[in-house]
Write a structure and sequence with these properties.
This protein has 327 residues and is an alpha+beta fold. It folds into 3 domains: 101 residues, Rossmann fold, CATH 3.40.50.20; 145 residues, 2-Layer Sandwich (D-amino Acid Aminotransferase, Chain A, domain 1); 64 residues, ATP-grasp fold, A domain (Dna Ligase, domain 1, 2-Layer Sandwich). The protein contains 10 helices and 18 strands. Strands 8, 13, 14, 15, 16, 17 and 18 form a 7-stranded mixed β-sheet that branches. A 5-stranded mixed β-sheet has the order 4-3-2-1-7, with helices on one face. It starts with a strand and ends with a helix.
Length: 327
């Protein structure tokens, strides 16, 4: 029986979503192959919740667990932590040092892709369109006029390193810029100011399996709010997600080709989700999620189902790919 440490929680505004994702993963991982230990990670507290013994701390020296004098070590980690420290590479570097395989992208590539501004530079160098933007830092001061010299309104102001649209604002007027910056800087020391691209929001999951890259059916997101914010993402009444998207075959193939190319360029692993905007000017890259949501409201489970996978198939492939990575 393969022992799986399913890590969830984290230290960001996506804590609750991570816990929900982990609950779905624990429910669907094939029980005949894997023994799953759900480990909640928040700050210095790394604990396993035992049904009878209560909360048992993880030994961080070797990422082990001791239950009734029996020491348990793990064959593989299933990473379900959105945001820090699971999606920004911090805890992944720890697992790399311990040589414990995990289901998501390496620590270095995770750190790069989690930093939206730096990731955009790499994507742009790969001849993929990205929105015009400014990368701002908390310790510096900013004038509205200075920002407007480089950025046209409307624009988005968001934490540079974060997810689920936490701390994000859409700005249409000059006087909205400073409050939006304050909101974003409350979540992160770096902020991205990015011009709004009018168009259709399209997203695609990519999964490596046995040497091939599988591209899932594309989803179109139609938000009933002004943009696809945190509330809209997790409230089905506020958004419509159409899988597969009703788009021309030529656009579908283009999205699949670019996503697979960026998967290789960014040196990604595990299941990831690429977000795009199709505008009059062309297809724009928005961001890549290296630990996409796996809760019942999330997009990847919808796409996997449309592809023909059961949830158990998806999680089994992710774990087998991680285990094969050490050989």
């Amino acid at each position: 029986m393969i022992k799986v440490a399913l890590i969830a929680g984290g230290d960001s505004g996506e804590y609750e979503i991570s816990i929900k994702s982990a609950g779905i993963v624990a429910q669907h991982i094939p029980k005949e192959k894997y023994q799953v230990y759900l480990i909640e990670i928040q700050g210095h507290h790394w604990v396993y919740q035992h049904q009878e013994l209560g909360r048992i701390a993880i030994d961080k020296n070797d990422f082990s667990l001791t239950i009734d004098s029996e020491k348990i070590t793990f064959d593989v980690v299933f990473n379900a932590i959105h945001g820090t420290p699971g999606e920004d590479g911090k805890i992944l570097a720890y697992f790399e040092m311990l040589r414990i395989p995990f289901t998501s992208t390496s620590s270095i590539s995770s750190a790069l892709t989690f930093n939206k501004a730096y990731c955009n530079h790499v994507v742009k160098a790969s001849e993929v369109l990205v929105a015009n933007s400014m990368h701002l830092f908390k310790e510096e001061s900013y004038e509205v006029d200075g920002i407007l010299e480089h950025i046209k309104l409307p624009c988005f102001i968001k934490p540079n390193q974060g997810g689920s649209s936490v701390g994000m604002s859409k700005v249409s007027k000059n006087e909205e810029i400073l409050p939006a910056l304050e909101k974003a800087f409350a979540e992160d020391n770096e902020v991205l100011v990015e011009e709004f691209i009018e168009g259709r929001e399209l997203t695609i999951g990519v999964l490596p399996s046995k040497g091939k890259l599988l591209a899932f059916p594309i989803t179109e997101i139609i938000s009933k709010k002004e943009f696809f914010d945190y509330e809209a993402k997790y409230n089905p009444d506020l958004n419509q997600e159409i899988t597969p998207a009703l788009i021309p075959l030529s656009l579908e193939k283009k999205i699949q080709e670019i996503s697979k190319r960026l998967f290789k360029v960014l040196h990604l692993k595990g299941v990831v989700r690429f977000d795009f905007i199709q505008s009059i000017e062309g297809l724009y890259f928005l961001e890549v999620n290296t630990v996409p949501g796996l809760s019942s409201e999330s997009i990847i489970p919808q796409q996997a189902k449309a592809y023909g996978f059961e949830m158990a198939d998806l999680f089994d492939i992710m774990l087998q790919e991680a285990l094969a990575s050490l050989h």
